[in-house]
Design goal:
Blueprint: E1 3-11, H1 15-26, E2 31-34, E3 49-52, H2 56-62, H3 68-87, E4 96-98, E5 102-106, H4 109-122, E6 126-128, E7 132-139, E8 142-149, E9 155-165, H5 174-180, E10 189-190, H6 199-206, E11 211-212, E12 218-224, H7 234-237, E13 247-249, H8 263-271, E14 278-283, H9 284-291, H10 304-310, E15 315-318, H11 335-349, E16 371-383, E17 386-388, E18 394-396, E19 406-412, E20 417-418, H12 429-444
Helix pairs in contact: 1-4, 1-12, 3-12
């Protein structure tokens, strides 16, 4: 089992890993990328927008509990990240609003990912697919590469000045979801590639990496309950983005969250409710303006209610609020209670009091029949908790609670890196891109110090 050495070994070939490896190769460095799936790209192949908050102030507003230094690095590095994409000949369309507060660019992510891989190979560097990583190579606390297993079972020892963990998070592992997110998270849907199973988390923690933040949460969306997500085209088609203009009730018939804060946050709130399921109620106005309309500029609108119905979801059209009292018993919801709560909400929305929970953004009544009802459940795209890093993508040591010591030679980016978000979200591709490029910059800067500072 012979050893070889590169400037940067990248474990994981998604947005962060491919960006880092391509940048190092473009700058003349030596790099090797190892991906355990048959094809590179990961969950980034299902995404289409590179976006984040337009300013640091806005990012801090929507994500007050995230690491402020990582937040600043994301905002400062975003424009350079977009220019890097364009420098490879990949189109970034003009900026558009995203999620009401963000701003970003529609990108052909498949074109970008494939271009990165081609650049790496064209520069004479290796990309190994269907290859797993058995263990990191360490010596006196210094990470010096990894031992990998090729598709034929052959072990390959790869020494590296820097090793980047970019395996995409742990959302693909039900046990890790239950441990680090919520006991009910073991059973939620996965709207991501199934191969991000915590490999980076396990490797990093074995090397002494810090993990956090506590109760960081995850990014996901409400999806129709009980509908399988094996078909990746359903990840976007069936996502119930319109929930922020509807009302969401749990199995007791009560509202429990301000739906207008955003579907991605409502998803985390629903995970805490009994059975992690709820009824999403909209009226004809919401159907007209949101359910069947475009969610993001440049993306054609589709009637999501009809898509849910054709997919076999539990859904119904009620001609009046009185029909809610006849809700089938097997659904497990008190229909009469939900009817009354909708009427109470409509009364407060018309000026008679304040709804509880409140409605920060869209407080208009839902009083235009018919009413569109879909049973919703949370589905996860990627995790927020991960290996804690600094702004240069260097992994922090668990033994140093103040975060002043790094693990020499070890980097993390993408969903393997934690700390940026805590129960908030401002883009997934953008942090993967920015901190992937930061990892490349660190690797191109020379060897780490033995002290890891």
């Amino acid at each position: 089992m012979g050893a070889e050495s590169v400037d940067l070994l990248v474990i994981g070939g998604g947005m962060a890993g491919l960006s880092a490896a391509a940048r190092v190769a473009a700058e003349g460095g030596s790099v090797m990328l190892v991906e355990k799936a048959e094809r590179t790209g990961g969950s980034a192949r299902f995404a289409g927008f590179v976006w984040t908050a337009p300013t640091l102030e806005e990012l801090r507003r929507v994500n007050p509990d995230g690491d402020p230094e990582l937040a600043e690095a994301l905002i400062d590095g975003f424009a350079d990240g977009v220019e890097w994409i364009r420098s490879l000949g990949v189109e970034c369309r003009p900026p558009v609003p995203v999620l009401g507060f963000g701003r970003g660019h529609q990108v052909d992510t498949n074109h970008y990912l494939d271009t990165c891989e081609r650049l790496i190979r064209d520069r004479g560097q290796e990309v190994l697919t269907a290859t797993t990583t058995r263990a990191l190579l360490t010596e006196n606390g210094l990470v010096k590469g990894a031992e990998c297993v090729l598709p034929d079972g052959t072990a390959r020892r790869i020494e590296a000045t820097w090793t980047l963990l970019a395996t995409g998070g742990f959302q693909g592992d039900p046990a890790l979801r239950a441990e680090h997110i919520h006991p009910q998270a073991a059973d939620i849907g996965l709207r991501a590639n199934p191969r991000s199973e915590g490999d980076g988390l396990t490797l990093g923690r074995t090397a002494g990496a810090a993990f956090g933040k506590k109760d960081a949460g995850f990014y996901g969306h409400l999806m129709p309950a009980g509908v399988p997500l094996a078909d990746t085209s359903r990840f976007v088609d069936l996502a119930l983005y319109y929930s922020e203009h509807a009302l969401l009730f749990d199995t007791t018939g009560e509202r429990f969250v301000d739906e207008t804060v955003g579907d991605h946050l409502t998803t985390m709130a629903l995970l805490d409710r009994p059975g992690a399921r709820g009824l999403l109620v909209a009226d004809a106005r919401v159907h007209r303006e949101w359910i069947s309309a475009s969610y993001v500029a440049g993306i054609p609108g589709v009637d999501k209610f009809q898509l849910c119905h054709r997919a076999g979801a539990r859904c119904a059209v009620a001609e009046s609020l009185d029909d809610f009292a006849d809700m089938p018993e097997e659904w497990g919801y008190p229909g009469a209670v939900i009817r009354d709560r909708v009427r109470e909400f409509n009364a407060t929305a018309s000026g008679d009091g304040t709804p509880v929970p409140g409605r920060l953004l869209d407080n208009r009544p839902l009083d235009e029949p018919p009413f569109y009802v879909v049973e919703a459940a949370p589905a996860i795209t990627f995790t927020f908790g991960g290996l804690l890093i600094d702004t240069e993508a260097r992994v922090l040591a668990a033994a140093d609670p103040d975060g002043h010591r790094r693990i020499p030679g070890l980097l993390a980016a993408g969903a393997d890196a934690g700390g940026l978000y805590r129960r908030a979200y401002a883009g997934g591709l953008a942090p993967a891109l920015v901190f992937g490029l930061a990892a490349a910059h660190t690797a191109l800067g020379g060897a780490p110090s033995a002290a890891g500072s």
